[in-house]
Amino acid sequence: MNIQTVLAGFKEKGLRLTPQRQQILRVLLKAGGPLTAREIAELVHRSFPNVGLGTIYRTLDTLKEFGLLDEILFPDGGKRFELHRKHRHHLICLGCGQAVAFPFCPADCLMKVAEQNPDFDVRGHTFAVFGYCGDCRKTQGEGG
Amino acid sequence: MNIQTVLAGFKEKGLRLTPQRQQILRVLLKAGGPLTAREIAELVHRSFPNVGLGTIYRTLDTLKEFGLLDEILFPDGGKRFELHRKHRHHLICLGCGQAVAFPFCPADCLMKVAEQNPDFDVRGHTFAVFGYCGDCRKTQGEGG
DNA sequence: TACTATTTGAAAAAGCTTCTCATTTAAGAA
DNA sequence: TTCTTAAATGAGAAGCTTTTTCAAATAGTA
């Protein structure tokens, strides 16, 4: 996904292309992984020091509403955001917080669940794997 | 898991069996599904109106520390708690909030992830399925 | 009973997210 | 370019959940 696509989508929906929104989008596009609202705010502030957290959250809400943004729930309850890229799950390092996406779903489990709960209308699922990345294993991942 | 087991575990660890903790445990044992901290507090207050939220959270922390409590993250970021019962995942209704546990894990996906990330030391995972239960489908689950 | 470290209640504080509202501004019209 | 207007913004207040603080109470033991 590039910024042109996103901005075109914005225009289609009648949303204004404010500099703040553009900067928030650039930050999300540049991000190597999912970011917290605060991290997004800090990065945006490098170009627009006065953007309020309200604006950050409002923009994130707007993006979510249009399916452009994914929200990732970390095991401690913390939320992170990244631009939507098909359906993906994450491999998350408990040491450094780095998250790597992978594109496949727990198919076997979903099938079993659906089979065993025929009355339940499955609409979605979450799946995330936690542990320690190669770098963190050397320092903090052992013996936990 | 019954209250005797839990209380015995408490004693072993040198924890005091205060009436507040016992009541929190009873509430968790009686619960039909995972509860929010506030729900636990409300139920505890029926017997002990003055138990503070601080005590609730501290007790939940203690239980988590000893592996007696599981925390479930809902898709909106809300947290719920239930006494640990082996390793389980949840089928959660977006209509009424009811959560049903199931005892199997997304094995295929976990294997793939581990294979594709040999440097990563996998320590855990989360998996939850969301949708609408039979009751809610009749009223609010259609066309969402 | 007396002792003491643990636990508690109450309130304050902290952290994240949402809301409020006067002001600003993007986008289109003239 | 200037005007118009609804949408968006910044700043701060407010709302929630969770954590911390600390004097007072108490479980467990001697």
Summarize the structure in words.
The structure is a homodimer of 144-residue chains. The first copy, chain A, has 144 residues and is of the alpha+beta class. Chain A is 43% helix and 22% strand. The first copy, chain A, has helices at residues 3-12, 19-30, 37-45, 53-65, 107-116, 134-141, and strands at residues 69-73, 79-83, 89-93, 99-102, 121-132. A three-stranded mixed β-sheet of chain A has the order 4-3-5. In chain A, strands 1-2 form a two-stranded antiparallel ribbon. Chains A and B meet through strand 3, helix 5, strand 5 and helix 6 of A and strand 3, helix 5, strand 5 and helix 6 of B. The structure holds a DNA duplex (30 and 30 nucleotides).
Q: In percent, how much strand structure appears in the residues of chain A?
A: 15-25%
> Which structural category do the helix and sheet elements of chain A fall into?
alpha+beta
Oligomer: homodimer
Total DSSP helices of chain A? 6
Helix content of chain A: 40-55%
End-to-end separation of chain A in angstroms reads 38 Å
* Number of DSSP-assigned strands of chain A: 5
Shape of chain A: globular
Order of helices and strands of chain A: HHHHEEEEHEH
Weakly predicted, low-confidence segments of chain A? none
Largest interface: A-B, 41 and 41 residues
Radius of gyration of chain A: 18 Å
- State the major sheet of chain A: 3 strands, mixed
Mean pLDDT of chain A: 86
How are the strands of the largest sheet of chain A arranged?
4-3-5
Highlighted features:
homodimer, 144 residues, two-stranded antiparallel ribbon, globular, 5 strands, DNA-binding, alpha+beta, 6 helices
